[in-house]
Design a protein that fits this description.
about 400 residues, binds nicotinamide-adenine-dinucleotide, about 30% helix, alpha+beta
């Protein structure tokens, strides 16, 4: 494990808890005291303040990168050098160029690689995605994902050089992969329109952003991200298709509501702003945030010699979309998504929105009225006129 901070500890709790046969054997942290403390907490025999030593340790089979964004590439290159399988937290890079270098390096080194996008492994996402894949929503027209909270917990996130961006990179990477998965990961993202601003925090990066991502098949994705939202961690997705709709609230309204005057007040859930009054605890955070299913997929795939659901390639595509979002926020125009490497479908066009009713008419809509008759709205193919038809 590289990094003993916020996500390193979430990962450790999950990967040592769930399958019970996985073990952290080597921990790297900058400071001796945090490396030792982590090693003690997770019963890890080897700790080091030297990243390469921690990676090269002979018992290490796979390296998990849980370091600040500007340290991902250095760590990935060391894994390539020592031919160690590697999984890295999000975002893969600070931009697509960095992500592309990491993708090419792991592929050249021939090592297993996984992209730790936990939010496409949450139980709610897995169930919803299965329904979408089975056609329960028909053709996906619009997929929206929101992640907003009051801002990250460590200094480096707020420094644009180390982090590579603000909330668009930090939180938008989750939303992009969620919506991209609903629309279809083999469908090419083509253009992005984005608004971004720094409304509250004294930082160079954006603390609020909203964007639309156009896909080649006519589907549209939307993300809403903020580091200025008050009230905790808001994680919500919406998917709209020709045959149905999905709404998911993953964190603030999970069906678990609690009131306390504050007696015995303790940790409630990630980014909760209060531990008194009405609260929205999360039953099993590791599971609800997808970490358990994510590590299952990573380790099972590695053992089978197969690629996991999320690889460095996915991390690269996400970075490319976010690069276009940043460009658009500046230019105020739709900006193309620049993908030097694209492994999905090419040349798709928007499907027709004309449904035949019969040889002479298109069907616009059918509806059961409150007065008990079924009504059809039809469009005459030759005149273009709209007509109502009442069915008995
Ligand atoms: N849901 C998620 O997937 C999720 C959530 C939070 C963070 N993250 C990602 O995890 C990574 C780490 O974030 P975090 O929240 O754990 O941060 P953190 O600040 O809590 O921990 C970072 C760790 O890296 C070490 N570190 C800091 N600066 C370093 C440097 N210059 N050189 C070497 N080590 C350094 C710190 O000592 C600490 O051990 C980031 O890429 C972040 O985007 C992912």
């Amino acid at each position: 494990m590289l990094g003993s901070g916020f996500i390193g500890r979430f990962y450790a709790e999950s990967l040592q808890g769930y399958r019970s046969r996985d073990k952290i054997v080597s921990i790297y942290s900058r400071r001796e005291e945090s490396a030792k403390k982590f090693a003690e907490d997770y019963k890890c025999d080897h700790w080091s303040t030297n990243m390469e030593d921690a990676i090269a340790h002979p018992e290490v089979e796979i390296v998990c990168i849980a370091l600040p964004n500007n340290k991902h590439e250095e760590a990935v290159l060391l894994c390539c050098k020592h031919k160690k399988a590697v999984i890295t937290t999000k975002p893969l890079g600070r931009n697509a160029e960095e992500a592309k270098r990491m993708l090419l390096a792991v592929e050249q080194a021939g090592i297993f690689n996984g992209y730790l996008e936990d939010l496409v492994y949450t139980p709610k996402f897995l169930k919803a995605h299965e329904s979408v894949k089975n056609g329960a929503l028909g053709r996906v027209l619009w997929a929206k994902s929101r992640e907003t909270h009051p801002g990250p917990h460590s200094d480096w996130f707020w420094d644009i050089e180390q982090a590579g961006g603000g909330c668009i990179l930090d939180l938008g990477c989750h939303c992009v992969e969620i919506t991209r998965s609903y629309i279809g990961k083999d469908i090419k993202p083509v253009e992005v329109m984005c608004w971004a601003d720094t409304q509250v925090k004294p930082i160079e990066a954006e603390d609020h952003g909203i964007a639309l991502i156009k896909y080649e098949n006519g589907s549209i994705a939307q993300f809403e991200v903020s580091w200025t939202f008050r009230g905790g961690l808001d994680l919500r997705d919406e998917v709209m298709g020709t045959e149905g709709t999905i709404w998911i609230n993953s964190f603030l309204r999970t069906g678990f509501e609690m009131f306390t005057t504050g007696k015995g007040a303790d940790y409630v859930s990630e980014k909760a702003e209060s531990n008194t009054g009405w609260l929205f605890p999360v039953g099993d955070e590791l599971n609800e945030l997808g970490y358990n299913h994510m590590f299952m997929d990573m380790f099972n795939s590695m053992e089978k010699g197969a690629a996991p659901k999320e690889t460095f390639y996915d991390g690269y595509v996400v970075n490319a979309i976010l690069d276009a979002a940043y460009k658009s926020a500046k230019s105020k125009l739709w900006e193309p998504v620049k993908l030097d490497i694209w492994r999905g479908q090419e040349g798709l066009s928007k499907p027709s929105n004309y449904t035949d009713y019969d040889a002479d008419y298109y069907l616009v809509k059918e509806e059961m009225t409150h007065y008990g008759t079924k009504k059809l709205i039809l469009k005459n193919k030759s005149t273009g006129k709209f007509e109502e038809r009442i069915l008995a």
